[in-house]
Amino acid sequence: MTSPELLRPFTVFAYLLAAIFCGICALRWEKPARGAWTGMMILLTLLGISKQWNLIPQWAQSIRDAAWLQGWYDLRQIFQTVFIVIILLFLLAWFLAILRNSAWQLWLPIAATTLLIALSIIRAVSLHAIDLFLYQELSPGVQPNSLIELGAIILVGGSAIIAFFLPAKPEIDTNALTH
Fold first, then answer.
1. How far apart are CA 41 and CA 25, in angstroms?
2. Tens digit of pLDDT for each residue in 59-90?
3. Rounded Cα distance, 136 and 150, in Å
4. Do residues 44 and 18 make contact, with C-beta atoms less than 8 angstroms apart?
5. Cα–chain-centroid distance for residue 155?
6. Distance between terminal CA atoms of the chain?
7. How far is CA 154 from CA 15, 26, 113, 172, in A?
8. Ordered alpha helix ranges (H), 29-165
9. What is the pLDDT of residues 93-148, one digit of tens each?
10. For the whole model, what pTM was predicted?
11. CA distance 126 to 107
């Protein structure tokens, strides 16, 4: 068993644990933060399920197989690049729209969740130059791919733990408003 295969159950556990922390925050916080925490909980759960069952790579392989059978496999890099650019622009617009209406406490977990989605899509598209970076061995069993993924999961889960201990509703100092 290779190191990424050994790391998969730990990564799935991290996804699901971070999703639970986000769910707890969703129960505790008021709107609109509740919606953001709920959305992150759902996305992390789906990414964890996808990681466990290897769904995104299977989907990508089925597209590669179809490209091979339909004769446009040699042109795939053009399609891959365009697809990545479109998805990254969409994620950037989504990220900025979500941040615009979110409390500052949500900025880091939203950014980390967006990074996890982008990483999953970029890995699925599998551009050779990006794969060379993501899957290089920094040391035995350690790849940038795993470090980025686990780091982003820890940021989301850690932010949820910290947010749990923050006041659920920011208190407004009415005295400061009258002076």
1. 9
2. 888 888 888 898 887 887 888 888 888 988 98
3. 16
4. yes
5. 10
6. 67
7. 9, 18, 10, 31
8. 33-53, 55-70, 76-100, 107-125, 128-134, 144-165
9. 888 887 787 787 888 999 999 999 989 988 888 777 787 888 788 888 788 889 99
10. 0.81
11. 28
Q: What are phi and psi of 69, to 5 degrees?
A: -65, -35
- Domains of the chain, by residue range, sit at 3-166
User: Does an H or E element contain 30, and which?
Assistant: none
Region for residue 167 given its phi and psi (left: phi exceeds 0; alpha: psi -120 to 50; beta: otherwise): beta
Give CA–CA dist 153/175, Å, rounded. Answer: 40
Encoding tokens for residue 24? 């707890």
Q: Could you tell me the two tokens for 149?
A: 């993924």
CA pair distance 134, 143, nearest whole angstrom: 6
Which tokens belong to 14?
């991290």
